[in-house]
Amino acid sequence: MRTDVGHRMTWRGDRELLPGKWPQKMMGSARKRQFASDNWAGVCPEAWEAMQQARDDHAAAYGEDLWTQQASDLLREIFEIDCEVFFTFNGTAANALSLASLCRSYHSVIAHELAHIETDECGGPEFFSNGTKVLVVSGENGKLHSEQVEWMARRRTDIHYPRSRVVSVTQATEVGTVYRPEELDALRETARRCDLHVHMDGARFANALATLDVAPKEITWKIGVDVLCLGGTKNGLAVGDCVVFFRKELADEFAYRCKQAGQLASKMRFLSAPWVGLLSNDVWLKNARHANQMAQKLAASLNDVPGVAIMFPVEANSVFVQMPASMDAGLRSRGWVFHDFIGAGGARLMCSWDTQPEDVDEFVSDCREYA
Fold first, then answer.
1. In this predicted structure, what is the pLDDT of residue 30?
2. Residue 3 contacts residue 26 (beta carbons within 8 Å)
């Protein structure tokens, strides 16, 4: 007997589930690679090798080890600034705790209506900040625009309304578009006029950076980003994101927040060591470039399929499409898994660091059969 609660599956009964005998539905799909999410992808070899190197010897606990120091120093080199770095188990914790550090309970965060902190974090930012309100605005192609941010920040300033304190920017956006430096600079000016901190949700920051081909500092602290939540899981790690405070004073006592929230790993080196493998020799950018290239190939191929329409500019590693219901059903019957409830509707097709050209070709070929 099986009971389903959300994504959790519990198996009951006398039958033992042996390796290699897992029911297909529990595994998700028999296909090796999917377009459901970049979270589905495995661990890139460089990150795995670094973790293996860290596994044998004893090392200081709770982040006092050399691997954590090396990963932090690599980030300081990459961003060309002396920043504070903290490693977390996931992006929800990174976003929620960093926003909590910028706000008090009577403050508010201005974000796009599709932002992950609004739609997919189960109230985490509000919970960990003891009540900070997320205020949302609309914007074309998943982007915040200065006018809407300033309107929201100045809409009400009386004592009966939560005071705006932070603007949260998602880079790349939830619909796969990328903010250009000039767009971020305009938001920085708005934040300055409205006395707002700037938070960046960078779950797919590497993909945005690969598209823009600029130095990381040019789209972070040099244009006013105070804190970046940098994604690793979606770029080849097994687990873990990190929080980078470019303004070190804002990180005051952040370590205590991590501990209280269950984000201080005792064997921290197993969170941080894979980052060393990912960040060394620009592996993180290589992974992101490849995922972006596969998304471009997928979009270009789908453009020629009757009945399929690309919904947003393809600028990172996601492709949003509208397709006929018959095609959607046919693809799923062949074992393809993708989501149609994320972002702004339509089918979201995510490419990953390990997506291969033949995966794209096979998917598009199946689309043509149901066109």
1. 65
2. no
Residue 31 — pLDDT band, cuts 50, 70, 90?
Answer: confident
228, β-bridge pairs:
200, 244
Tokens 């120093």 -> residue: 73
The pLDDT tens digits of the residues spanning 137-175 come to: 999 999 999 999 999 999 999 999 999 999 999 999 999
Asked if residues 251 and 172 have their Cβ atoms less than 8 Å apart, the reply is: no
- Its domain, for residue 168, covers 45-281
Helix, strand, coil percentages for the chain (3-state, nearest 5): 45, 15, 40
Say whether both 222 and 331 belong to one domain.
no
- Cβ proximity of 354 and 31 under 8 Å: no
Task: Supply angle C-alpha 166, 119, 135, rounded to 5.
Answer: 35
Region of poorest pLDDT, from 55-64, 72-81, 94-103, 265-274: 55-64
- Structural domain count, the chain: 2
Tokens of 367: 């689309």
Q: Are residues 269 and 316 in the same domain?
A: no
Q: Which pTM was predicted?
A: 0.91
Mean pLDDT along residues 47-68: 94
Nearest to 102 by CA among 270, 250, 213, 228: 250
Residues 131 and 221 in one domain: yes
Which tokens in the block code for residue 125? 């930012």
Residue 232 shares a structural domain with residue 103: yes
Tell whether 114 and 76 lie within a shared domain: yes
Say whether both 178 and 262 belong to one domain: yes
pLDDT band at 5 (very low <50, low <70, confident <90, very high): very low
Name the DSSP class of 162.
P
53 shares its domain with 103: yes
Peptide bond into 30 cis (omega under 30): no
pLDDT for the residue numbered 57: 84
Helix residue ranges per DSSP H, 303-352: 325-333
Give the residue from 253, 281, 309 where a domain finishes.
281
Considering only CA atoms, give the Rg of the chain.
21
Separation of alpha carbons 370 and 326, rounded Å: 7
